[in-house]
Amino acid sequence: MHDMILVGGGLANGLIAWRLHVLQPALRILLVEKEATLGGNHTWSFYRQDLTAAQHAWIAPLIVRQWPAYEVRFPGHRRILDTTCFSIDSARFHDVLMRALNSAVVLNASVTDVTRCSVRINGELCNAHAVIDGRGHAPSEHMRYAYQKFVGQEVRLRQPHGQALPIIMDATVAQSDGYRFVYTLPFDEKRILVEDTYYSTTPDLDLATIRNNIRAYIESRGWQVAGVAREETGVLPIALSGDIERFWQDKQGALACSGMRAGLFHATTGYSLLYAVRLADELAVLKTLEADAVYRHVRAFSVRQWRSQGFMRLLNRMLFFAGAPTQRYRLLQRFYTLPHQLIERFYAAQPTLFDKLRILSGKPPVPVLGAVKAMCKTGKEISSKPS
C-alpha cells in the first residue's frame, strides 16, 4: 500500500514527488511514467519574481542556466529588462529526480484503470491512499482556449553566436499564423536554443514549414549550424473563458489532478512551472494524504488560481479578437513599454489593481470598437481541443 501514486512523470507530478520525499521521507511514494525518462523533452523557463526565495532555494538543483536580464525585439520597440531568468531542461530534471527518488520511480510503465485510490501498473493493481493524475492537458467542453505552439531546436554553431542574454520575444520576424516570434536561449558561446513560436487559433504544427523558418532565422543572424542537438515541440493552451466548477465536475470519481490536467497554467503564457512549484509546496505540508483531502485541496487550489486570472483571460480575448492576426504583435509591443515591475508581476500572475488599470489605460494599439467587442467574446469560435 502506497501513501501516494503519481501517474505521469512530467513537471507537476515530478515536483510533487520530489518535494514530498524531501519534507516527508517516510512516505511511500510512487512516480509512474510511460516513457523511458522523466520530464519528456522540454525546456522550462521562469523569472526570479515568479517564485519566493524559499522556492528558488529548493528548486535550485534543477537549474541549468540563469541570466541577469533578457531582451525583447519588436518592429517599433526594443528593450532589455533587468529581470533574472532561469531555465530547467528535462535532462537535468530526470537526473535530479532519479537520484532523489530512485526505486520510487517506475519508467516505461503501462498504466490503466486509474482511480482515486488505485492504478494498474504493468498489469498489477497497486493501491494507495491517494492518486494524482498528471498526464497532461485534457480537453473540456467547459473551457475555451487558443494556443501557444512552438518548435525549438537546440543547435551547435560553428562560431560563437555573440548573444549574451535570452531574447524571449523577437517579433521582428514575418508575422504568420497569428502572433509569431522567435525565442532564443544562449546556453554557452556556441550552443543556443532557437524556438519559433505562434499565438494561434489552431493547435496544428506544420513541422516542415516551422523548421524552414528556424533555418531562415538562424541564417538571418549570420550563424552557421554545426549540428542540431535536439528538437522539442509543444502546444500550450491559452485560456479565453470557461467554467472552472463544471470543468472539475466532469472529472470522474473525484480523482485529483495536477499541472495542465488541473487547469494550472498561466492563462496568457501557457507556462505551468510557477503553479507546479506552488502546488508541490502546498501538498508537501498536508497533514493527511487521504484521497478526499488531496482532491479537495487540489480542486480548491485550481479554482482559486483560475478565478485570480480573469484579467489575463480578458487580455487574451483582446489579443485574439480585437485586430487582424498580423497586427497582434502591437499589443505585446505596447505591453513591453510599461514599467519593469508591472511586467514582472504580470508574469508571476500577480498583477495589482493599479497594474490592470495601467495596462488598459491610454490609446489601445488596436481599434477601440474591436477591443470592446473582444472583451465580450467567449472564444466559442475556437476549438477547445489541442493536439
Automatic annotation (TrEMBL):
InterPro entries: CrtY, FAD/NAD-bd_sf, Lycopene_cyclase_b/e
Top-level lineage group: Bacteria
GO MF entries: lycopene beta cyclase activity; oxidoreductase activity, acting on paired donors, with incorporation or reduction of molecular oxygen
GO biological process, alphabetically ordered: carotenoid biosynthetic process
Family the UniProt entry places it in: Belongs to the lycopene cyclase family.
Protein name, per record: Lycopene cyclase
